[in-house]
Amino acid sequence: DTGVSQDPRHKITKRGQNVTFRCDPISEHNRLYWYRQTLGQGPEFLTYFQNEAQLEKSRLLSDRFSAERPKGSFSTLEIQRTEQGDSAMYLCASSLVWGTDNEQFFGPGTRLTVL
Amino acid sequence: SQQGEEDPQALSIQEGENATMNCSYKTSINNLQWYRQNSGRGLVHLILIRSNEREKHSGRLRVTLDTSKKSSSLLITASRAADTASYFCATALFNSGNTPLVFGKGTRLSVIA
């Protein structure tokens, strides 16, 4: 499968625990994006990378959220000290920088439930 | 905050009918995109229309763009049960190429067989 993959697909955790999600983009894509989606809403941008450089992180929801893309390939999103309000679908997308079009390819998402 | 707002929020039609969804946005754009999301899944890119285009077709999809009104519409012709999904319009967050996207709340389409 050459699409964007995310792992795990589902995560149930208790409040206060740390969780980490992984995203593997399409191999030749140099841009990688993280979004969060809550029920009934569209995806909300969190952060993005070009290769290993994090280009924007001010929209991460709090300092409990962090993301890395250490080798410019896969990325991880970590949430520390989870809260019930963190329950959502976390989506990863990737794209190839070319021209001005910004079509993005999304993974299936990781659904987080915080109890 | 979300830039695009889709209308209606929900739409239910019979198989074979056409479905029209509208999107309004707030700032100037280079392009506007439409995505589909099946329940609980990731988003799938449907079509991109550039700011200098007024209409674009792809299979059973027709997208229009009116930059003077800051609005776009997505028409699905001869709908099928498999078209049941949420549809989102998206515009660029920053005024440059290949930026993160801003999505509306989406239109939930139900196609009844």
Could you list the spans of chain B in which at least 5 consecutive residues all have pLDDT below 50?
Answer: none
Identify the most extensive interface between protein chains.
A-B, 30 and 29 residues
Radius of gyration of chain B: 13 Å
Report the mean per-residue pLDDT of chain B as an integer.
Answer: 92
Element string of chain B (H = helix, E = strand): EEEEEEEEEEE
Weakly predicted, low-confidence segments of chain A:
none
Biggest sheet of chain B: strands, sense, closure?
6 strands, mixed
Globally, the shape of chain B reads: globular
Secondary structural class of chain B: mainly beta
Oligomer: heterodimer
Helix count of chain A equals 0
Largest sheet of chain A: 7 strands, mixed
Number of strands of chain B: 11
**Rounded mean pLDDT score of chain A:** 93
What shape does the CA trace of chain A take?
Answer: globular
- Please give the alpha-carbon distance between the first and last residues of chain A: 33 Å
Residue share in helices of chain B?
under 10%
Alpha plus pi helix count of chain B: 0
Beginning-to-end CA distance, first to last residue of chain B: 36 Å
Describe the structure.
- The complex is a heterodimer of chains A (115) and B (113).
- Chain A has 115 residues and is mostly beta strands.
- Helices cover 0% and strands 48% of the residues of chain A.
- In chain A, strands 2, 4, 5, 6, 9, 10 and 11 form a 7-stranded mixed beta sheet that branches. A 4-stranded antiparallel beta sheet of chain A has the order 1-3-8-7, with no helix packed on it.
- In chain A, a hairpin with a 6-residue loop joins strand 4 and strand 5.
- Chain A is globular.
- The model of chain A has no long low-confidence stretch (mean pLDDT 93).
- The mean pLDDT of chain B is 92.
- Chain B is built from no helices and 11 strands.
- In chain B, 0% of the residues lie in helices and 55% in strands.
- With 113 residues, chain B is mainly beta.
- In chain B, strand 7 and strand 8 form a beta hairpin.
- In chain B, strands 2, 4, 5, 9, 10 and 11 form a 6-stranded mixed beta sheet that branches. In chain B, strands 1-3-8-7-6 form a 5-stranded antiparallel beta sheet, with no helix packed on it.
- Chains A and B meet through strand 4, strand 5, strand 9 and strand 10 of A and strand 4, strand 5, strand 9 and strand 10 of B.
